[in-house]
Task: inverse folding
């Protein structure tokens, strides 16, 4: 039992280092500043928030800067979360965060990949206002989108989200984001990568897709 635990610990350490190398290399390419691990309680840095924020999460391999006209940050986050079943599960996310230029401060939605739904269910304990979109719309999204994603929204702010919900958004999520989750909260856009092995190509593609989506959102939001 002790050998198995040691082997698992070593495997996790290797994965963390590998993810860190990918983030550092991408940060260097984009001209971001790399900080390594950060402590939100003590470090004077604008940390990444969103639904993965908790009192127990830990951030490593943090990078921040400006790219293509947007404030951009990347962080590798892990947390030991209690699942709806009661068991505790170690969860990891590499998060791409973009600060939008135009603001709809109360807007909140989450685009959840159905094949990763178990990994995200525990995140909504503190976001109970988010409910499935299909309860509030008459026209359903494309079938391909519905097979891959579920859209969760704050129904009280549906009017803020409605201008974004069209074929260009749905097709982009299918083609460029899946299987990543996407959160839109106020002026903040988050993309959650859950791959155990993160490489530069996957991360760079996620960043480029996030920048495209940020431009789309800003073009349809009144400042």
Result:
């Amino acid at each position: 039992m002790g050998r198995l635990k040691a082997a698992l610990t070593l495997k996790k350490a290797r994965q963390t280092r590998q993810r860190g190398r990918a983030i550092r290399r991408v940060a260097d390419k984009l001209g971001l500043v790399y900080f390594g691990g950060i402590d939100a309680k003590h470090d004077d840095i604008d940390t990444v928030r969103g639904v993965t924020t908790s009192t127990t999460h830990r951030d490593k391999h943090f990078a921040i800067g400006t790219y293509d006209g947007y404030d951009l940050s990347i962080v590798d986050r892990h947390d030991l979360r209690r699942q709806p079943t009661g068991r505790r599960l170690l969860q990891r996310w590499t998060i791409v965060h973009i600060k939008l230029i135009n603001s709809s401060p109360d807007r909140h939605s989450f685009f959840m990949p159905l094949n990763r739904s178990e990994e995200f269910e525990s995140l909504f304990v503190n976001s109970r206002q988010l409910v499935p979109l299909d309860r509030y719309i008459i026209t359903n999204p494309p079938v391909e989108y519905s097979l891959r994603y579920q859209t969760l929204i704050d129904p009280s702010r549906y009017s803020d989200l409605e201008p974004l919900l069209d074929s260009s958004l749905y097709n982009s999520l299918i083609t460029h984001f899946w299987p990543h989750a996407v959160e839109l909260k106020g002026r903040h856009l988050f993309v959650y990568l859950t791959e155990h092995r993160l490489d530069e190509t996957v991360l760079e593609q996620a960043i480029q897709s996030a920048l495209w989506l940020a431009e789309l959102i800003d073009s349809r939001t009144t400042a």
In short: The chain has one domain: 2-219.
